[in-house]
Design brief:
This protein has 100 residues and is mainly alpha-helical. It contains three helices and no strands. The chain has a domain of 61 residues: Helix Hairpins (Orthogonal Bundle), CATH 1.10.287.
Length: 100
């Protein structure tokens, strides 16, 4: 039963390459002009969903690369907010000085 559930999950969330190939196939079918308007709209909707999925996978990959490399896309260092040596972390800001 677990195998069946896994197959269903992979059908709804394909990997990047599979999703991109599906979009390419849909574009070819749409460009051929052999579909009815309703079929074209359904395929277009599917392609948009797959493209959103691809963008999400790309964003996730970019985040992982930033963490692993230590730099974000702009070349700024990625700081670990749990690092006590990081003085820019909100928890490490000194309180207002008070005189006693």
């Amino acid at each position: 039963m677990a195998k069946r559930k896994k197959a269903t999950d992979s059908e709804t969330s394909p990997d990047f390459e599979t999703a991109l190939e599906e979009v390419e196939q849909i574009v070819r079918r749409l460009e051929a002009g052999d579909l009815s308007l309703d079929e074209s709209l359904r395929h277009y909707e599917t392609a948009v969903g797959r493209m959103r999925h691809c963008y999400q996978l790309l964003e996730d990959a970019e985040r992982k690369i930033s963490v692993l490399s230590g730099f974000d896309a702009e070349g700024n260092p990625v700081l670990d907010p749990s690092d006590p040596a990081d003085s820019s972390a909100p928890d490490n800001n000194p309180a207002s000085p008070t005189e006693g």
